[in-house]
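Predict the 3D structure for this chain.
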Amino acid sequence: MVEGTLNVAEFYRDATVLITGGTGFIGKVLVEKLLRCFEVKKIFLLIRRKENASASDRLQRMLEGPIFDRIRSTAPDAKERFAKVVAMDTTFEREDIVDDVDKAKLCNEVQIVFHVMASIRFNEVLDEAIAINVTSAQRLYALASSMAELRSIVHVSTFYSNCDRMYIEERIYDDVPYGGLDHIQRFFKSLNQGEKERITRLVLGDMPNSYVFSKKCAEAMIGQEFDKLPIGIFRPPIVISSYREPEPGWVDCFHGATGLCVPVVLGKTMWYYGDPDVKPFMSPVDHTVSGMLAAACDIYRRQCTILPVEKPVPVYNFTFDKNRFTFGDYARLVSSGLRNPLDRWLSRIKYRISLWKIFPQILLWLMTLQARAADEILAWFGKRGSNLKIVSAITALANAVEYFRLRMWTMDNSNVKRMLSLLSRDDAQRLDFDGERIDWKDYHKSYAKGIAMELMRKNHRRQQYRKSSLQSSTKRN
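Done. Predicted structure below.
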């Protein structure tokens, strides 16, 4: 294997790509990158109907978003590029996730599949998490088995799918407890909702939440049922806002680490319980997407070149041990992107990771009291306050990821390192995903700004929604 063995640009030339989760955070960056940097023939997006919006409506709304501004402003053929993206109505609750006409199109045209869709709610009841994160994948890969020209499938999992182990290898761990996935699903069918909630905690065991457990189950399912397909498992760590593409600091959701930094940008005080010396694995979304694009090509290469015929499903731990920072450093790095020097200085006191749980709890109690009082005052003036709702949301998120602020993992990332070494020079420039080369000080110059921009966009969308709702109500009256 030598440099240039992975000819990624040629792999995607005139290819038809199928993506699930294309309207999500990672999915949007993936679609944008494919349209801007590769000569793909077509991109099918499987999109579920949501709030009376069809798949086509949701696609149109997505393509009008700011993430695609770079294509609009730099590509003379932007309209033709956007026309390559085709939305398909899908329902993962059924065995046949698309209708017969769309199924025929997919089976005849698709060569590359990215399964990005997932439920990232950490407090989901286990059977619901399995339905979204396992059964949906199962039905998609059953469909992929009928694709005549299939080259590669990338199943996007998470590095923490086996977080009950301190050392994580690039392989599938099939030690699902209680007799395996099938037994768990059959058992949950006989329970009512209250029983499911109580049993979920028992089944999870040492795993912190149903999200990572269901991701582990999905990996085991792939190894048992679909190992004959050209499929690989891609495990990103905590995915945060972009480093450089499509623009520095771009983000459109506040899950995980990014959500916990919102109070810093708003100038609020927030202390979180955790170990400030723990070094988390984090990856900018544009690096993550570049790694996924290279992984699809590497999966195809393995199928074509690696002997023996019985090939294990390749796993990619998209993590880099060098160039990591601690949670204590993270608090300082985030504040470095604030514009006002006084805000930067104050944020080092306001935003902290504390080893002592009592201090974050006292602060949370005071913030809750203050938020409740502020909402009551607004109510006196006939206005609806959301201060308590915001504090509750941040608290729930902080508690959900507390497990990851207290532990540190080691891992093997040989497959990812090998991919990097096989890239041609052109592909290495096009797909910059070497985490060891990230300048985190430079990265965080745009981090707070990106969060502030998304807060403004969300506020604008809320105002537009209230305005349209008010107009609709006025017309009805």
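Residues 96 and 139 are 7 Å apart (CA to CA).
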